[in-house]
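Re: the 526-residue chain
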Amino acid sequence: MRNTLGQVSRRSFLVSTAATGLVAGSGLAVPFYARGADRPSFTHGVQSGDVDTSSGMIWTRVDRPSRIMMEYSTTESFKSSVRLAPMDALAETDFAVKRLLADLPSDQDIFYRFVAADLAHINAVSEPITGRFRTAPTSRRSVRFAWSGDTAGQGWGIDETGMKTYATMARHQPDFFIHSGDTIYADGPMKDEVAFKDGTKWKNMVLIDEKRKVAETLDEYRAQWKYNMMDRHVRELSAVCPTFYQWDDHEVVNNWSSGKNLMADDRYKEKSVSLLTARAARAFHEMSPIRYTPAEPGRVYRKIAYGPLVDVFFLDMRSYRGSNHDGMETEQTPESRILGEQQVAWLKQELAASKATWKIIAADMPLGVIVWDDFANRKGTEAVAQGDNGAPKGRELEIADLLRFIKTAGISNTVWLTADVHYTAAHYYNPDKAKFQDFDPFWEFISGPLHAGTFGPNDLDMTFGPELKFIKAPTAEQGQNLPPSAGLQFFGLVDVDGQTEQLTVRLMDRDDVELYKVTLDPVRRA
C-alpha cells in the first residue's frame, strides 16, 4: 500500500536523538544542541531523482559550510540503517550536496536522512531532515507516474495558495514525476503585485531580490531554483516522490540557441549567451537530483529504466541544436539539427536495446506544434515544426530519420510526453494524414503549465500528420497569459497495468479534474 503525502509529513520519526546516533556513528563528538542560528539548518527541503531498480539520487542544501551525515533504511524507524561516508557542503556548490544511493533492493521504500554539523563548530549539529522514494520493480507490478512542465513563469510566483498543482499531483502518489523543462524562469522577473482588469490583484506573497531581475550571475541562477523550493507544495512532493528533470530554454533565457542575440535586450548587462548558459547549466546540476554522467559531465539526455514495463528516454532538445532560423533546409546539416548527431545515435541504440514494454520519450518540446522564435511576427523555428505543412525540412529532417528508424527496427510502444506550450493536448500522429509517411503511428501528450501563464492554442504542422484528439487552452475571450488562479494549470498521469500491460494516460487540471483519458494496448511483436 502506498503511503500518502499527509502520512509522511505528519510523522516525526526524525528526532534529535536520531541525529545524535547518526553523528556519533560518523566518528564526530556527540553534539550539543544550540538554539536557532547557532547550528546549521536545511534551507530548501530534500529531493530524490533518477531512481531505478537498485539506485537513486538524493539532494539537500544547508545554510553554511557543513559536514553532511547521511543514512538510509528500508524502514521508517531507521532500524538497521546504512550509514554513509559524510560529504562536505561548501560555498563552491552553494552549500548543496547530492549523492547516488547504490545497491538498493528493488521495489522497496527507501527512507533517507541528513544531519549537518557546522564545519566551523563541528559539535553544533542540525536537526535531521528526511525523505523517501521507492525503487523500481524487477517484477511486472503496476507503475504510475506524473509529468508536466513550466514552473513560476510570466511573473506568477508564490501566492497565498502556493503552487497548488504540485499538491494535486502528490495526492495521486506517483512513483516518480517527470519535470519536462522550464523548471525555472531565469528570464522572468516578478513584481510584488499584478493588477487585473477587474480591479483585483495577484500578490506574490513570497519574493526574493533575485526574482526581481533576470538571472545573469551563477548565484542569481541558483536563486531561481531556491525560490521555487520555497513553496511548501514543491517541497512536500519532493520529499516523497522522485523528480526526473530535463531542461528547456527558460533555465537560461527565452528561446536560447547558439545564435541568440541579447544586444538589444537592456535587461541584460551580460550579453554572452554562452556564458549565461554555462552558469545556468551549473546551477541546474547543483540544484537538482539529476545523475552525473562521467562521459559528458553536465549531460541532460539519459535513460532511466523503471522496471520491465517502462523505460524513460530523456531528450535534450536545447544544448545541441543549431541556431534558431527559418528551418527550411532540405538536407540535414549541423544547423538543421535539434538533437545533434551523438544524441540521435545514442537514442537509436538505446531504443533498439530496450526490453521494456513501453518506451516513454520525454521531450522538452512537441513535434508537430508550431512554436515561433518570433511569435509576434510568426517567424523563425523555435521547436521542430517550421509551419509549411510539407515534406520534412530543417529540424524535421532529424525527427523524420528517427521515426523511420523506429519503424524499420521494429521498435514498438513508443509514447512521447512533452510540455513547453502552456496548455494540454493529445495528438495522434497518423502517417495516413502526413506528408512524411515512413513511420508507425504514435501518440504525443502535452501538459503544463505547472505554475505559470497559460497560453495557446498553437497551430499544428501536418508534416507528421498530428490529429488533435483533445485540447484545453484559453479561449479567445479569456486571452493569453492567464494566471494560475484561473485554473488552467495542467499535469498528466500515466498508469501502466502490471497484468494487462495497458498504458492509460489522463490529462488533469490543478483542481484534480480529469479532462481526457485514453488507454493504449501494447503491440506484441512476434
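Residues 1-17 have pLDDT under 50 and may be disordered.
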